[in-house]
Amino acid sequence: MNNMKRRTFLKGTLAGSVLAVAAGSGLLRPTEVLAAEWPKGGFEAKSMDDALNALFGSSTTADNGAIEIKAPNQAENGAVVPIAVDASKISGVEGVAILVEKNPSPLAASVMTPGAAGFLSVRVKMGKTSPVVAVVKAGGKLHSAKKTVKVTVGGCGG
Amino acid sequence: MARTTKIKARSKGGATEILVLVSHPMETGQRVDKKTKKKVPAHFIQKMTFKLNGKEFADANLGPAVSKNPVVGVRVSNAKKGDKVSVRWSDNMGESGDATTTV
Question: What is the ipTM of this complex?
Answer without folding.
Answer: 0.78
